[in-house]
Amino acid sequence: MPFKPHYLLVSLTLCWFVALQAFPMNGCAACQKCRCIRTSSAFISPRQFHRIEILPPGAHCRQTEIIVTKKDKATVCVTPDARWINKVIAKLQRTNKKKRSAELPISTTIE
After folding, report:
1. Which helix (H) or strand (E) holds 86?
2. What would the mean pLDDT of 1-23 be, rounded to a whole number?
3. Distances in Å between the alpha carbon of 10 and those of 14, 16, 18, 19, 109?
4. Is the pTM above the cut of 0.85?
5. Which residue ranges form the domains of the chain, and what is each CATH number?
6. Distance CA 81, CA 83 (A)
7. Are 42 and 77 within 8 A, CB to CB?
8. Which residues, listed in sequence order, are joined to residue 77 by a DSSP beta bridge?
9. Partners of 78 in the beta sheet?
């Protein structure tokens, strides 16, 4: 009979460790929110871009988020439906595709 409190303490400690391991170090994914509260469809010149992030929908947010970091370190959330951003993204993808194909070594066989 005196072992019951001991077993209860051990089982509660074990449950606590299991629950602790279930969550990532930066918090639970369900607790994270969308990064973009407001979006803008106003044109931003690609020359001002420092970085562009495209975050697909997921557990943290239901909609696609496009975050543009400008050279002056200001961040702007762009509406994914804006025509101009879709054109910029398509152009960047074409440019990256060309760069990758240019970087591939050309193999020649000598007979």
Report:
1. helix 83-103
2. 72
3. 6, 10, 12, 14, 69
4. no
5. 30-98 (2.40.50.40)
6. 6
7. no
8. 67
9. 40, 66
Amino acid found at 72: D
Separation CA 65–CA 56 (nearest Å) = 7
Q: Cα torsion at 43, 47, 51, 57 (round to 10°)?
A: 30
Q: Which amino acid is at 66?
A: I
Collect all residues with Cβ–Cβ distance below 8 Å to 82 and sequence separation of at least 6: 41
Residues in a beta bridge with 54: 66
**In the predicted structure, residue 50 carries a pLDDT above the cut 70:** yes
- The model's pLDDT over 54-84, given as tens digits with 9 standing for 90+, comes to 999 998 899 999 999 999 999 999 999 999 9
Token readout for 100 is: 């990758």
pLDDT in tens, 84-97: 999 999 998 998 88
